[in-house]
Design brief:
The chain is an alpha/beta fold. The protein contains 15 helices and 14 strands. Helix 9 (213-221) links the parallel strand 5 and strand 6 (227-230). Bound molecules: zinc ion (ZN).
Length: 415
């Protein structure tokens, strides 16, 4: 661009800014409430990591199969009255990763893949959770996967690398949020295992870290004010970065975890809860259809718990269910299927039962199973399409239509 054209553009931009400034000043006197309704009192933001519309459709098709039907069965959130679509690309790639998409949702700004809570230039961004905390909201940041994984971290962390797990854990206390939950910690004692353990690290900074129900009950009896609740089996140890499958006897399930968070936060003060279901993405990376569906249904269990709360406070509660991106490119129909072919859920289901609901199937065996059931997967990575946003409750109408994932923050805040 020539210097002359640059200065012309600059002149036009200045002119536009002047007009905008005049309009803003002219409107300052008559700011009515409907133009800026603000955030709902109680906000639930569910993120199904990697959950595209077809992951949800697969879960519903499977539920229908269990009822001896072709369709009809629905998860709770596809019954929500408002449906929108959010684009997901990141600042530097058509196909986002969870940290860039989490940052877009949380901070309302695009960043590069791999970055967390900062701009591509390294400037610190402000999470919606922090903004709401400063407005007096209680904050719960929950995940089915590690507390310091990309999606929950996008609500409290600022790091050039989503893989600096120990550095991300160290940011938890500065957030001041009330309730964290996850499976446990990645890099529990640092990358080389020679640093202060995550539990001690956080307890030195005023958080009570509980592994399992017993420790949690004890923390409540002791009047703990800030909690990090993890699964019992990961006490004092590294969470394997990829665990999916059957829950153990001591696992705190998704609905119970949500219930605990709600009891802890109470309903006296306003709150913001982000709940991530992370195994949807992990199973989709592996193209494992049934474990992925089970993960969607676990998300649905947590949403159901939020819906029970919503029914008690319908005018003050907003529930959103969305995704950071789609993973795996799943299709219902594959390998040259035509309209007259049915999906063979019975094959997937019986293999899943035979495995004891454990995600252990070898890759080639898994591919054969998907092929014979006519479930298609196009990649082991993420895809770049838009994701659905399901909304119900106070301010839900703002989430209809097509927008960008960076718009979600402003829509929640009702700006
Ligand atoms: Zn992923």
């Amino acid at each position: 661009m020539s210097k002359v054209r640059k200065s012309t553009v600059a002149g036009i931009v200045c002119g536009i800014l002047l007009i905008v400034a005049c309009v803003v000043i002219a409107n300052m006197g008559n700011h009515d409430k409907s133009a800026n309704p603000g955030p709902a009192k109680y906000i639930f933001l569910f993120i199904g990591d990697g959950m595209g519309a077809t992951h949800v459709a697969a879960a519903e098709s499977y539920l229908s199969y269990l009822e001896g039907e072709r369709g009809l069965e629905q998860v709770s959130f596809t019954k929500f009255p408002v449906l929108g679509m959010a684009s997901t690309y990141s600042a530097d790639k058509n196909i986002t990763c969870s940290s860039a998409a989490g940052t877009a949702i949380s901070c309302g700004e695009k960043t590069n893949n791999g970055m967390l809570g900062i701009t591509p230039d390294g400037d610190t961004l402000t999470s919606i959770a922090l903004e709401l905390k400063e407005k007096g909201y209680k904050i719960g940041i929950m995940s089915s996967v590690p507390v310091n994984h990309a999606t929950p971290a996008a609500f409290y962390g600022h790091n050039a690398s989503r893989h600096d797990y120990y550095g991300i854990t160290k940011e938890i206390p500065a957030s001041g949020y009330d309730f964290f939950a996850g499976s446990g910690f990645l890099d529990y004692a640092g990358k080389d295992g020679d640093r202060t353990g995550s539990e001690e690290l956080l307890e030195n900074e005023g958080y009570t870290v509980c592994f399992g129900n017993e420790e949690y009950e004890e923390a409540l009896r002791n009047g703990a004010e800030r909690i990090v609740l993890c699964q019992e089996e990961y006490k004092g140890t590294e969470v394997p970065s990829y665990v999916t499958g059957k829950e153990s006897d001591t696992t705190i399930g998704s609905a119970e975890m949500m219930k605990k968070c709600l009891d802890f936060l109470g309903d006296e003060k306003p709150f913001f809860i982000m709940y991530e279901q992370g195994e949807i993405d992990w199973c989709a990376h592996d193209n494992k259809t049934m474990p992925m569906i089970e993960a969607v249904l676990k998300l649905d269990d947590a949403v159901e718990t939020a819906l029970e709360f919503y029914k008690k406070h319908p005018d003050e509660t907003l529930i959103l269910v969305t995704a950071d991106h789609e993973t795996g490119g799943i299709t219902l129909g594959a390998t040259g299927t035509r309209a007259e072919v049915n999906l063979h859920w019975e094959e997937l289901d019986s293999a899943w039962i035979a495995s004891g609901h454990l995600n252990t199937m070898k890759e080639d065996e898994n591919r054969k199973l998907n092929d014979s059931a006519f479930i298609g997967w196009t990649t082991h990575g993420h895809t770049g399409g838009p994701v659905p946003v399901y909304a119900i409750g106070a301010g839900a109408e703002r989430f209809g239509g097509r927008y960008d994932n960076t718009d979600i923050k402003g829509k929640i805040l009702g700006e």
